[in-house]
Write a structure and sequence with these properties.
Blueprint lengths: L8 H8 L4 E4 L10 H22 L3 E5 L23 H21 L4 E6 L1 E3 L12 H7 L4 E3 L2 E6 H14 L5 E4 L2 E4 H11 L7 E3 L1 H7 L7 H7 L2 E2 L14 H15 L5 H12 L1
Parallel strand pairs: 1-2, 2-3, 3-7, 4-6, 5-9, 6-10
Antiparallel strand pairs: 6-8
């Protein structure tokens, strides 16, 4: 194992030395980082991986991106850096789109790269969960009684891994592959979480108008409220020929792992983790 900084080209090159293929799955969702640092990791880090792979003549590079880059664009993909007025959550989608652009530019110059675009994914072994994934350890600790009124598309993390392996072995260079799961509203999803944790609780939906009254800070702002209270469903066709696990099984494995392995089931640890990354 090589430990290094994704923004340091020399360290990335040293880590990749001798590799035939590279899977680039490193990005940050620590939304309270300075925008410049956020961009340096998600976009600059992608450039470093691609440039090192080309220099070392790797056979294949695979970027794990996000399904949101295939949906309605929020900015020009050629954006060269963050703007100070971008909401933190929007910066994630924009930086992912810009990173894809950098990959595709290099494909035109000979880089053998493929992009996989998964929807929102969950699963065990999540040592650094994003905000929505924190519902799993919270459900272990207590029944979740309220959720935003929106919805999303969710797939198992192991399904995404299988899709990446397929794309490395069979994918076409320069192609983006949507990896799509199940469209589900948040009430139903969190009900599945509660039941996996042993509690038969159906949460009540919270409206956007109510949540806007309590939206504060850089991360949970009005942009985030609008995002989590609408139907973020995906109708892109699933393009990778893999079997997908039922969502109930995925959630059950996820909750079991958090219960048995994660420190985040403790309220103090969960609050400290959330404050450090998202407040």
């Amino acid at each position: 194992m090589a430990v290094g900084d994704i923004t340091n080209f020399s360290e990335i090159r040293a880590a990749m030395l001798g590799c035939d293929s590279v899977v680039h799955a490193c990005s940050t969702h620590t939304y309270n980082l300075p925008p410049e640092r956020f961009w340096a990791i998600n976009v600059g880090g992608t450039c470093n991986v691609c440039d090192a792979a080309k220099e070392l003549r790797c056979d294949k590079v695979l970027l794990t991106s996000t399904i949101s880059t295939l949906l309605a664009p929020t900015c020009d993909a050629t954006t060269t850096g963050p703007l100070p007025n971008w909401p933190a959550r929007q910066l994630m989608s924009i930086s992912k789109r810009a990173a894809e652009h950098e990959v595709l530019v290099r494909v035109e110059k000979g880089l053998p790269a493929i992009i996989v675009n998964p929807s929102y994914f969950v699963g065990p072994y999540d040592y650094s969960p994003s905000p929505f994934r924190l519902w799993a350890p919270l459900a272990v600790r207590m029944p979740i009684a309220f959720v935003p009124s929106g919805g999303f598309n969710v797939i198992g993390a192991q399904d995404v891994s299988r899709a990446c392996v397929w794309a490395l072995n069979h994918g076409t260079v320069g192609t983006r592959y949507p990896v799509v799961g199940r469209n589900i509203d948040l009430v139903e999803y969190v009900t599945i979480l509660n039941r996996a944790a042993g509690r038969d609780v159906v949460p009540r939906p919270l409206s956007a108008s109510l949540l806007r009254w309590v939206a504060v800070g850089k991360v949970f702002d009005r942009y985030a409220v609008d995002l989590i209270t609408k139907g973020n469903y995906v109708f892109e066709q699933h393009s990778v020929p893999i079997e997908r696990d039922p969502l109930e099984e995925v959630v059950s494995r996820t909750v079991r792992w958090f219960r048995e392995e994660s420190r985040l089931v403790g309220l103090y640890s969960l609050a400290r983790y959330t404050w450090a990354r998202y407040c």
